[in-house]
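Entry 14. Ran structure prediction on the chain below.
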Amino acid sequence: MSQETNFIAGEWVVASKATANINPSDTNDVLGEFAQGSSADVGEAVAAARAAFPRWSRSTPQERHDVLKRTGDEILARKDELGRLLSREEGKTLPEGVGEVTRAAQIFHFFAGECLRQAGDKLASVRPGVEVEVTREPIGVVGLITPWNFPIAIPAWKIAPALAYGNCVVIKPAELVPGSARALVDIIARAGVPAGVLNLVMGKGSVVGQAMLEHPGIDAISFTGSVPTGRAIAAACVAAQPMKKVQLEMGGKNPLVVLDDADLTVAVDCAVNGAFFSTGQRCTASSRIIVTEGIHNRFVDAVAERMKALVVDDALKAGTHIGPVVDAKQLEQDLSYIDIGKAEGARLVLGGERLNRATPGFYMAPALFTETTADMRLNREEIFGPVASVLRVKDYDAALAAANDTAFGLSAGICTTSLKYSSHFKRNAEAGMVMVNLPTAGVDYHVPFGGRKGSSYGSREQGRYAVEFYTTVKTSYTLP
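Output, structure tokens:
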């Protein structure tokens, strides 16, 4: 069995400990032993990044463009191979895995272009004869902590802008899915990034992540993951000496509103895709489906019929619609919410049970609850699995109020044929992203990603807005 290593100062470095990377579709299938880094490894990675920063931060836009462009090209050329690796270690279906890899390539290509589009401002001063320039400079060494549900896309959308704007990087991928991140780092290294600019330290968040938070040589932290961990990271960054810039993406409890005038086929497609695809393991998943009275019964019946046709099986098997949950712990959490929903008085229409397949894995039938109320835990807490609840409301005003009745604010959707209601919802939904007649999950790579309230903190990710986090602004005055 191969032992996969950390990448520090341009070299692959063997760690003293390693852990197995297990296929959630077949727990007998082990992808390899992956390094468990230490705080000392983090220290070496930070030292390498700081040593590389002076040169990389002053490299030409063309040099950075070329590295990112070559990276995107190789990812795209190997999308089938890398997609299979991703699906094998995370559990999303093979078409979803290949799609995510393709997205990673597109992200690198976009930020390759951004290298050449960096600009500043030259302004007239209020003082005669004085010139003012406003420019952006890289922030320094950035620590990236990524989650398990998008093992290559989220590392891509953090690494690509960090490098494009001249920063050096230490990345810690989620312990459950190190293979995709390791493959990505290998591609970037061979694309010509100088030694020390990009460093990979795999391992536990309590060890590697904590060391990154505590190291004074890291200037900023970008994190995607759970709310409790995100809040702890924010507190640590503020308390650090010196303080660290911080960016957090922490999840959602996303509403999909279905009005009486909605196209039923469109509404069902949006609900099933948003709630259950990728096994519901998306922070943008439609976990709360808010339906007005006139269409409620027809909608629930149609969703249930569609769910009966969904195939839950091995992620690599042709014809599978939904793969396994990522691991035993997540499966246990998902199943516990089935019991919670029943105990709260919600009606389980379909699904919610553990499934057995030809290979041992963490399979679960997607679950749909109805007759729920806004105060139920089903509608308040992020489950992060294939569990959706339907909340019946009187009209649009009640639907909007229910949609905004959450501590989260990442994504919100509405299904309607009314321009009046869709326009009003886009303006008044308390979310960072709003979808009309589209699933709440699924975003473009060239526009900003992020939310409000408890979902996000700090600058937006992706698109041109990524420059806000990965650079600092300098204002220069000159008297010629």
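The CA atoms of residues 71 and 188 lie 5 Å apart. Will compare against last week's run tomorrow.
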